[in-house]
Specification:
Structural class: alpha/beta
CATH superfamily of the largest domain: Vaccinia Virus protein VP39
CATH topology of the largest domain: Rossmann fold
CATH architecture of the largest domain: 3-Layer(aba) Sandwich
Number of strands: 30
Oligomer: single chain
Largest sheet: 8 strands, mixed
Strand order of the largest sheet: 2-3-1-4-8-7-5-6
Distance between the termini: 98 Å
Number of domains: 4
């Protein structure tokens, strides 16, 4: 029996899907907007569901008609043979889409879906005396209605869940690719026919590597799925399906050999996710996974016609374009030096970042990652590595000598001081030269370069060039590879906006400060877990904590609480809304052998709610709020300029007689002393500013507040 099918595809992959189905089905198909049409026996539809890596859904057409208005639409929809497809004891759902202008009365997909549901229910009730149920989440059968003007096509979704859900479950990392898009990328690249090895140096959760292994080792993606939509369809042929599944298993068993596939990532968390996903996909033996920094990646010696395929971050969900420029430059250098004679395929949503790779594309393919327009770039790599260590366009400009000289002097001066102070982390440079508007922080061999928000009068291209100068010179003077240097950009935030997560490596490093050890993370967030400009505040708290009770509000990673505990505090209470930061704080306590649940509390709660409910008294209160904070679980945000007086008033109610409140603020404003009541306020900003922040553009202002009459 000749049936009509339509394989849906992600935007931009229609021609790729056509090529796949032409080979899979053994007959020509027709690519169109949103997918590929084909016709034939039911076997072809089942084959597409079982084998297609690129399709998102397979639809079986059960009716076509023209309807100009609602009455005609309902009448013709009801006339379709619904009883041939759906039983009254089953559930169903309807999805609709428009491919042309809406007609009278049928002005939205939602209304079309509703009228289709009415027609199905009314017809089956009239024929069988009962009606099936609607279940939008997990229906037995899903119908799809497509309207192009008055022309209407009604289909059964043979897939059930979207085909990119391979069925084995997936541990996700940040910004993952969908499996069908990854498969499309690999088919465009010509994998596996054109190459004898594949390397993904930023594998994340290993989506590209898994799809590469499916293709090379002929593993039908539909085998891993527990069910398909057609299995609860009245027209399902179980015998035919069992036959096709048996064939697919035999093909998989017969394909034991294939080209080597390597999946590397600098993140331990990503590597763990990749290994788990490969095991679930039953492809763990086909892919070599290892934690490896980008700069350490290289072509395997046995491969001659290999391909590098990579989906680096491109500033939409992770990082920022300015921050990621050095990553793309590093990728280009690695490709030129470590993968000579290979082909690289880079999938990115940023044209500007793609330029930083420094390789000329021989082909470009427009694809979409969801709704985001992206490009897949084919980058042939020369057979011989360049003689120069870095490309000419990456070398520092003459203007950068000012930055070089200042950084060299600061390093010589501050390293001696840091050793004497038993400090592993300190600021080396803070916009000392106006043209190089960055801060450079040293974290015991790791370096964070944070660019301050670009002044409006500075050209974006010039700012990127200067950042390249900073990265090259900093790496040279500090004698560290660029892979140990993290770039951050402190952008102008929209009002009410927060800095969000930048990466997901989850790697902690331990550093020393005055006999204490603290965990830092230089990659995942804008801040590292240890505020260097609070170093003297922590020392002050430690020196004044003996026999006292400390309350640490906005505790972050609890470094001030650790300092107090080490100084002899009889009790500390650390309050923060972040579970992650409090867990980080508990690690800091454990590392310093200070863990004691009877003495040290970690409270996950909104600061205002805590102060309203808590009735204890504290001898030392440390308040270091962010400029802005919000949480999905709270009705109200926190704005420091607006809310600082209320915060201090409530905090002072918890201050014991003779106690002291230490208030540190990143913002420059004057305290309204009259509203705080009968207290004494002393600003100690200069005293609390460390030597390495003496020239800082804006050190935090620090105040000591005690409940005494002002003189």
């Amino acid at each position: 029996m000749e049936l009509k099918f339509f394989a849906m595809a992600a935007r931009g992959t229609e021609q790729v899907l056509k090529g796949e189905l032409d080979g899979l089905l053994g007959q020509p198909t027709v690519a169109g907007r949103g997918g590929v049409a084909f016709s034939g026996p039911l076997r072809l539809g089942y084959q597409a569901c079982l084998w297609s890596q690129v399709a998102s859904r397979i639809l079986l057409t059960i009716g076509e008609f023209s309807a100009e208005d609602d009455a005609a639409f309902y009448r013709q929809m009801r006339a379709l043979p619904w009883a041939d497809h759906l039983g009254v004891d089953q559930s169903f759902a309807v999805q609709a889409a428009f491919g042309g202008a809406a007609t009278e009365g049928l002005n939205s997909p939602r209304f079309v879906a509703l009228r289709t549901k009415d027609a199905i229910v009314d017809e089956l009730r009239a024929a069988k005396g009962r009606r099936p149920d609607v279940d939008r989440r997990d229906p037995d059968l899903r119908f799809f209605v497509y309207r192009a003007g008055p022309q209407t096509t009604v289909s059964i979704d043979l897939s059930g869940q979207a085909l990119f859900r391979r069925g084995q479950g997936r541990v996700m990392t940040s910004a993952p690719l969908k499996e069908n898009l990854a498969a499309a990328i690999l088919r465009i690249a010509g994998w596996p026919e054109r190459y004898d090895a594949l390397v993904d140096p930023m594998c994340g959760s290993a989506t590209l590597a898994i799809e590469a292994a499916r293709a090379a080792y002929r593993r039908a993606p539909g085998l891993a799925r527990a069910s398909h939509g057609f299995q609860r369809w009245s027209g399902h042929d179980p015998t035919l399906w069992r036959e096709l599944v048996s064939e697919a298993k035999q093909i998989a068993s017969a394909t034991a050999q294939g080209p080597p596939i390597y999946a590397f990532d600098a993140s331990a968390e990503a590597v763990a996710a990749a290994k788990t996903n490969l095991q679930r996909a039953q492809l763990a033996e086909q892919v070599i996974v290892a934690q490896r920094d980008l700069l350490e990646c290289a072509a395997p010696l046995a491969a001659e016609r290999g391909m590098v395929v990579v989906n680096p971050p491109y500033g939409v969900r992770l990082g920022d374009e300015a921050e990621l420029a050095t990553l793309y430059e590093a990728l280009g250098n690695v490709l030129r030096r470590r993968f000579c004679g290979w082909h690289a395929w880079v999938f990115t949503g940023s044209r500007e970042l793609a330029k930083r790779i420094g390789l000329r594309a021989s082909s470009r393919h427009e694809l979409y990652n969801g709704k985001l327009p992206c490009r897949l770039l084919e980058l042939p790599i020369a057979d011989r590595a360049p003689d120069a260590e870095i490309a000419a366009w990456q070398r520092p400009h003459a203007e950068a000598e000012m930055y070089r000289n200042r950084l060299r002097k600061n390093v010589a001066r501050l390293r001696r001081w840091a050793r004497a102070q038993q400090v592993d982390c300190y600021r080396l440079y803070d916009a000392d030269v106006p043209q190089y508007n960055v801060a450079v922080d040293w974290y015991d061999g790791l370096v964070v370069v944070a660019e301050y928000a670009r002044p409006l009068g500075v050209d974006a291209g010039l700012a990127v060039r200067r950042m390249r100068d900073v990265v090259t010179i900093t790496s040279e003077i500090l004698e560290i590879p660029e892979s140990k240097l993290v770039v951050r950009v402190r952008r102008r935030q929209r009002e009410g906006a927060q800095y969000e997560k930048r990466d997901d490596r989850g790697e902690l490093h331990w550093v020393r400060e005055g006999g204490l050890r603290f965990a830092i993370n230089t990659t995942d967030y804008l801040d590292t877990g240890l505020f260097l400009d609070h170093r003297l505040v922590r020392r002050y708290i430690r020196e004044h904590a003996a026999g006292k009770r400390l309350l640490n509000l906005f505790a972050y990673t609890c470094s001030a609480s650790v300092a107090a505990a080490h100084g002899g505090a009889i009790r500390t209470t650390s309050v923060d809304l972040s579970r992650r930061y409090l867990a980080w704080g508990e690690q800091n306590f454990a590392e310093n052998q200070l863990s004691d649940p009877q003495k040290h509390r970690f409270v996950r709660q909104d600061i205002r709610q805590f102060l309203e409910r808590d009735r204890q008294q504290y001898d030392l209160i440390f308040v270091a709020p962010p400029a802005y904070s919000r949480s999905k679980g709270l009705d109200r945000d926190f704005d420091l300029r607006r809310d600082h007086i209320e915060l201090l008033q409530h905090s002072l109610k918890r201050l014991a007689p003779g106690g002291e409140l230490i208030f540190s603020t990143p913002l420059d404003f004057e305290l309204d002393l009259a509203t705080l009541g009968d207290v004494r306020v002393v600003e100690v900003t200069r005293k609390m500013t460390p030597l390495d922040f003496a020239q800082s553009k804006a050190p935090p202002r620090t105040f000591l507040i005690s409940q005494q009459a002002r003189s």
